[in-house]
Amino acid sequence: MSQSLWNDVDTYFEQSLIGKDVGVDAAREASLAAGLPDIAVAPNQGKLLHILARSVNARRILEIGTLGGYSAIWMARALPDDGEMVTLEYNPRHAEIARENIARAGLASKVKVIVGPAIEALKTLSGPFDLSFIDADKRSNPDYFRWALKLSRKGSLIVVDNVVRGGKVLNSSTDDPDVQGIRRLFEIMAAELRVVATAIQTVGAKGHDGLAVALVTT
Ligand code: SAH
Ligand code: DHB
Ligand code: MG
Hints:
The protein is of the alpha/beta class. It has helices spanning about 5-20, 20-35, 45-55, 70-75, 90-105, 120, 140-150, 175-190, and strands spanning about 60-65, 85-90, 110-115, 130-135, 155-160, 195-205, 205-215. The protein contains eight helices and seven strands. It is globular, with a radius of gyration of 16 Å.
């Protein structure tokens, strides 16, 4: 509705608090130049993920949905020298560009990109991860959340992107499997006694969307 105003405010935040940042800017530009879709998190969202990772003293981070590695770079930068990140990507072309971007950012030794359906990769991982960021096919959010929880410890955070989708989340009778996946995610989060969870709707460069955040309490 006021997309150009939201863009301007995001640009203002970016200019005030982030500035030119070669590490992440290069990853975004190379991803777009390679023809990847323009759906990475916005810079201020990437920085929020970075701050969340630092807040939980993350030593191991899991990401589901790598694209060109933009959000991965923001989060991996929060890791200590011996920290590690695993990021899961279905599309081999996306994974290839992500590996290049991650290497250019000097993070290749800390970040492992696993190519293939995330569900298959998740079966091979061992936890705990201190932060999980779920940002892949939205229809699979219920499975991804269950896996992220299984791979968490007390105090881990689980963050899920794109839980509003311009308000489509309200449509309980939709046959859109992605919207159903988001709604089912909220049901699972609400019923799950091992987490405290909330969600925030956002406007900005990514339109009207939102994030869900769950803290694992036991
Ligand atoms: N987190 C990224 C954006 C991810 S976009 C960032 O903010 O920079 C979503 C990604 O999930 C796409 O690259 C898509 O190929 C990937 N994806 C879709 N379905 C998947 C699946 N089943 N398993 C793993 N990755 C998947
Ligand atoms: C889409 C996916 C995302 O993860 C996102 O942040 C925005 C859009 C998409 O598939 O359209
Ligand atoms: Mg997203």
